């Protein structure tokens, strides 16, 4: 069964069989507004937790997308690079950014579950 | 200590604050004000709507003031000591874009000047300055006026801009006199029973109007304009992308106290008589730049790919030599791609010159282009 965790940088990671699928949250896409550019990482890239590995830009500003956990990027979503607006339409579904093979599953314990993230959003907005 | 200091004060609200919130505005701090960055449509749709129909902008944060003197010549000559525009030969009702200059020819602020059309207002000039520069400008001007001319800030006046290809049609319904205005002229008219000063000008590259109105009546006016066919409220986000596509400077970004009007590509705003006679701050430097070219020039930059290059991005020659910096950059919704403006040395300013932009540590290809990115559609 997939486990879903959230970060303070407003990203989600869905973990299945040691592979985490990563994207930005619905709240993040709302805050960013119209997304016009996305850069996803090259598969094979080794990332440490917190490394900036992707970029998402709205009309307003550029934001980094971080690796929520350490590991190797195994796949990137080419669809969002060609259709950045997909991130506004389906941030927590079709518009995932990359998949990462998790090297240290213990790092997941430091992330928030859905309820904690919803509370975090409420507190910070 | 400045007479107009606003440091550390809580953000101010424009007289349209309540209406902005009711219209679903997302508010952000800007130049000491809480301003709408976008409304319900969002920046992208607001931008495209303004280019397709008409947008209403709350620009009440901008500084409105009048110079009051005994006659036009006295007031105009007093202002000509501070700006390089020909103010003396402004016809009644005529408006000009100019810059307040420091002694080095750097830009203290850019501003709009209007000679009122009405004979009752003889000896007056209306000024609109940037919100963030109000105090600086007002102090600078006041300190340099002769005894017979005084500066009166008009904090009790609000300002809205109606911009877009439908703006003329909207105005025709409300005031044929305002609709009849030519580009860069203004007049006092009644809109829905409200006395307003309307000029045919704006900051989007589109046809449009800027409407100065008593703060007490601006809500009524804004509701009236928003009730017209095709008019949507538009925030500062789209205002910024619209002006960038139109190749217009944003003070504090594309121009500042270290930038001369010639470097900034604003030589068109220095009329012949002033070039010949001088008599404005920095006239020597500006005269030399007009004759021989400035060391650096503001240019348009078009990134080859899809990645926007933001303000502060370094511009490099293909061999790596540092040329300058992006001063405004982002995504142009009408261009449907990234666009930017920045400064490059004189010899590199030719359209088509290939350059590299350092974005997140990577050199991305781009080329120098002419401005604007989207042709102006002013009512000439």
The main pleated sheet of chain A reads as: 6 strands, antiparallel
The dominant shape of chain A is globular
Low-confidence stretches of chain B: 1-5
The named CATH superfamily of chain A: RNA polymerase II/Efflux pump adaptor protein, barrel-sandwich hybrid domain
**How many domains comprise the coordinates of chain A?**
1
| Cα distance spanning the termini of chain B | 45 Å
Instruction: Work out the oligomeric state of the chains in this entry.
Output: heterodimer
Low-confidence stretches of chain A: none
User: Biggest interface and its residues per chain?
Assistant: A-B, 12 and 18 residues
Sheet with the most strands: spatial strand order of chain B:
10-11-12-9-3-13
Q: Helix- and strand-based class of chain B?
A: alpha+beta
> How much is the radius of gyration of chain A in Å?
13 Å
Fold and architecture overview:
The complex is a heterodimer of chains A (125) and B (380). Chain A has helices spanning 26-32, 78-82, 86-89, 114-124, and strands at 3-6, 11-16, 19-24, 35-39, 46-47, 52-58, 62-66, 71-76, 98-102. By secondary structure, chain A is an alpha+beta fold. Chain A has a single domain, classed as OB fold (Dihydrolipoamide Acetyltransferase, E2P) (Beta Barrel), CATH 2.40.50.100. In chain A, the strands form 2 sheets. Chain A has a 6-stranded antiparallel sheet with strand order 1-2-3-9-8-5. Chain A has a 3-stranded antiparallel sheet with strand order 4-6-7. In chain A, strand 2 and strand 3 form a beta hairpin. The longest helix of chain A is centred in the C-terminal third of the chain and has 11 residues, at 114-124. Chain A is globular. The mean pLDDT of chain A is 96. With 380 residues, chain B is an alpha+beta fold. Chain B folds into 2 domains: 1-294, Probable tRNA modification gtpase trme, domain 1 (Gyrase A, domain 2, 2-Layer Sandwich), CATH 3.30.1360.120; 296-380, Elongation Factor Tu (Ef-tu), domain 3. Chain B has helices at residues 17-22, 43-52, 72-80, 134-143, 167-174, 176-179, 218-226, 236-245, 272-277, 283-292; strands at residues 26-30, 33-38, 54-58, 63-68, 95-101, 107-114, 124-129, 150-153, 157-163, 186-191, 194-199, 208-214, 231-233, 296-303, 314-316, 322-332, 337-345, 354-359, 362-369. In chain B, the strands form 4 sheets. In chain B, strands 10-11-12-9-3-13 form a 6-stranded mixed sheet, sandwiched between helices. Chain B has a 6-stranded antiparallel barrel with strand order 14-17-16-15-18-19. A 5-stranded antiparallel sheet of chain B has the order 5-6-7-4-8. Chain B is globular and about 60 Å long. The N and C termini of chain B lie far apart (45 Å). Mean pLDDT of chain B is 96; it is low at 1-5. Chain A binds chain B through residues 33-34, 36-37, 39, 55, 57-62, and chain B through 37-38, 42-45, 47, 237, 241, 306-308, 310, 330-331, 333, 338, 360.
């Amino acid at each position: 069964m997939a486990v879903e965790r959230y970060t303070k940088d407003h990203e989600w990671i869905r973990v299945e069989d040691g592979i985490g699928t990563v994207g930005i949250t619905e709240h993040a896409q709302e805050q960013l507004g119209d997304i016009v550019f996305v850069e996803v990482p090259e598969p094979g890239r080794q990332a440490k937790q917190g490394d900036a590995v992707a970029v998402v830009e709205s009309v307003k500003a550029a934001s980094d997308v971080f690796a929520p956990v350490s590991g190797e990027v195994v796949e990137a979503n080419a669809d969002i690079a060609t259709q950045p607006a997909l991130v506004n339409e389906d941030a927590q579904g079709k518009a995932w950014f990359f998949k990462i093979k998790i090297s240290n599953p213990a790092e997941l314990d430091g992330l928030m579950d859905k309820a904690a993230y919803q509370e975090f959003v409420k507190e910070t907005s | 200590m400045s007479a107009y200091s606003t440091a550390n004060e809580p953000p101010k609200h424009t007289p349209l604050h309540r209406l902005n919130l009711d219209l679903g505005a997302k508010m952000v701090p800007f130049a000491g004000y809480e301003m709408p960055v976008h409304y319900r449509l969002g920046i992208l749709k607001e931008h495209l709507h303004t280019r397709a129909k008409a947008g209403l902008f709350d620009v009440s944060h901008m500084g409105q003031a009048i110079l009051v003197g005994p006659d036009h010549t006295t007031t105009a000559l007093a202002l000509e000591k501070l700006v390089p525009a020909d103010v003396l030969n402004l016809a009644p009702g005529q408006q000009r874009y100019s810059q307040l200059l420091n002694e080095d020819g750097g830009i203290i602020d850019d501003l709009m000047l209007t000679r009122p059309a009405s004979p009752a207002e003889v000896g007056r000039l209306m000024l609109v300055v940037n919100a963030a520069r109000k105090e600086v400008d007002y102090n600078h001007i006041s300190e340099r006026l002769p005894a017979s001319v005084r500066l009166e800030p008009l904090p009790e006046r609000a300002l809205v801009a109606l911009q877009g290809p439908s703006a003329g049609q909207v105005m025709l319904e409300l005031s044929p006199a305002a609709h009849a205005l030519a580009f860069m002229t203004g007049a006092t008219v009644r809109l829905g029973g409200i006395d307003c000063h309307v000029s045919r000008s704006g900051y989007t590259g589109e046809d449009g109007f800027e409407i100065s109105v008593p703060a007490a009546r601006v809500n009524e006016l804004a509701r009236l304009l928003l009730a017209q066919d095709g008019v949507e409220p538009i925030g500062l986000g789209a205002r910024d992308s619209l002006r960038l596509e139109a190749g217009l400077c944003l003070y504090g970004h594309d121009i500042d106290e270290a930038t001369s009007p010639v470097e900034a590509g604003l030589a068109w705003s220095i009329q012949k008589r002033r070039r010949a006679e001088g008599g404005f701050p920095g006239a020597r430097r500006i005269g030399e730049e007009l004759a021989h070219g400035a060391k650096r020039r503001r240019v348009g930059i078009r990134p080859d790919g899809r990645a926007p290059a933001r303000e502060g991005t370094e511009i490099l020659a293909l061999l790596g030599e540092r040329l300058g910096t992006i001063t405004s950059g982002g995504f142009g919704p009408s261009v449907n791609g990234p666009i930017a403006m920045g400064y490059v040395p004189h010899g590199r300013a030719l359209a088509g010159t290939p350059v590299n932009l350092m974005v997140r540590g990577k050199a991305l290809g781009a080329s120098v282009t002419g401005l604007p990115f989207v042709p102006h559609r002013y009512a000439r």
